[in-house]
From TrEMBL:
Organism: Parnassius mnemosyne
Subcellular location(s) of the protein: Peroxisome
Active-site residues from the entry: K53, T98, H293
Catalytic reaction annotation: urate + O2 + H2O = 5-hydroxyisourate + H2O2
GO CC annotation terms, alphabetical: peroxisome
Binding residues annotated for urate, in chain numbering: T98, D99, F199, R216, V264, Q265, N291
Gene3D superfamilies cross-referenced by the UniProt entry: Urate Oxidase
GO molecular function: urate oxidase activity
Name used for this protein in its record: Uricase
Taxonomic lineage from the root: Eukaryota, Metazoa, Ecdysozoa, Arthropoda, Hexapoda
Enzyme class: oxidoreductase
Main location: other
Length: 338
């Protein structure tokens, strides 16, 4: 079943019940109450439910002669059944066991290969909706481990190095008869620069002890997530790299001069604006940048004979908590139809 981003899946009748040797609840119970509302006389309702398999680990190796490529993933699946009977009366006949979901991940990876996390996630959710008519919604979260090809004078054919600069992830979901929804993300991108950062002219009142900082260390751990509007032919790999490069560019600037940051908020906004300008398929992007403080240590308390030294040495105290937390979401404005 080839994947296309605009697929709308209509499940065919399946002979697979989903239960794997699990006895069903007595038929008499099923006649009494099939929903939480019916079971409780209308007092309660099952407002949300689902189940799945978390953290299915797999390594995909593509061997093209002497040249090999790898992608390592951690895949989590989640299904929402149209029936509440597994919860209300313990009837498992519609339950696709989580162990079967794990097996499905491996089998689909073997059958289709893995090009990107997003496309593989779409293959997984399409499969569950196509195979099991009792599934009303399917979700798949894919986290990619950051392997890079080893550079040994030249790119190595079959050796790789773990390079955890940032973690790539995606969440793919689909409700039956609706289009696939893809959210991609980046996490754990820790950056630091030693100059070209300030924070001044903020509110000063009776609650304020923080002084203006015309020069400070700027460090943060960036988290970002975004969704796609045009799903016809997105380049997921390019989009992810564009987001990462935009963050680094607006944070650091040119290598010789850098770029001035008057606040975390401004740097965050500039990165988001660059992403929307460069990747037309992205509908909105949200970034979070918590402060990772490096505070000046007051050396004035010590006599000069113990503090005197090379003036190029500067010592700071890393402080993780408490920390400021800055975030924003930038989206495209809806086009006017007037």
């Amino acid at each position: 079943m080839p994947w296309t981003s605009m697929n709308r899946i209509y499940a065919k009748p399946s002979n697979t019940s989903g239960g794997e040797g699990v006895a069903s609840a007595p038929t008499s119970n099923a006649r009494v109450a099939l929903t939480a509302a019916a079971d409780t006389g209308g007092r309660f309702e099952l407002s949300d439910h689902g189940y799945g398999k978390s953290c299915v680990k797999l390594l995909h190796v593509y061997r093209d002669g002497e040249h090999h490529a790898i992608r390592e993933y951690e895949v989590s699946t989640e299904l929402k059944l149209t029936s509440e009977s597994p919860y209300v009366i313990g009837d498992n006949k519609d339950v696709v066991a989580t162990d079967s979901q794990k097996n499905t991940v491996y089998l689909l990876a073997k059958k289709h290969g893995i090009k990107t996390p997003e496309e593989f996630g779409a293959v997984v959710v399409n499969h569950f909706l196509y195979m099991y008519k009792q599934v009303g919604e399917a979700k798949c979260r894919v986290v990619e481990y950051p392997w890079e090809r080893l550079q040994a004078g030249a790119p190595h054919n079959h050796a790789f190095i773990f390079s955890p600069t940032a973690t790539r992830w995606c969440e793919v979901s689909q409700v039956r008869h609706d289009a696939v929804v893809v959210k991609s993300g980046l996490s754990g991108l820790r950056v630091l620069k030693t100059t070209q950062s300030a924070f001044v002219d903020f509110v000063q009142d009776e609650y304020t002890t923080l002084a203006d900082a015309a020069e400070r260390i700027f460090s943060t751990v960036v988290e970002a997530e975004w969704t796609y509007d045009n799903m016809r032919n997105p380049d997921f790999d390019n989009a992810w790299l564009t987001v990462k490069d935009a963050i680094l560019d607006k944070f650091a600037g040119p290598p010789d001069t850098g770029v001035y940051s008057p606040s975390v908020q401004h740097t965050l906004y500039q990165a988001e604006k660059t992403v929307l300008e460069k990747v037309s398929e992205i509908t909105w992007i949200k970034m979070t940048m918590p402060n990772k403080h490096y505070l000046n240590i007051d050396m004035s308390k010590f006599p000069t004979n113990v503090t005197k030294g090379d003036p190029r040495h500067h010592i700071y105290q890393p402080v993780d908590k408490p920390a400021g937390l800055i975030y924003a979401q930038l989206r495209r404005r809806p086009k006017s139809h007037l």
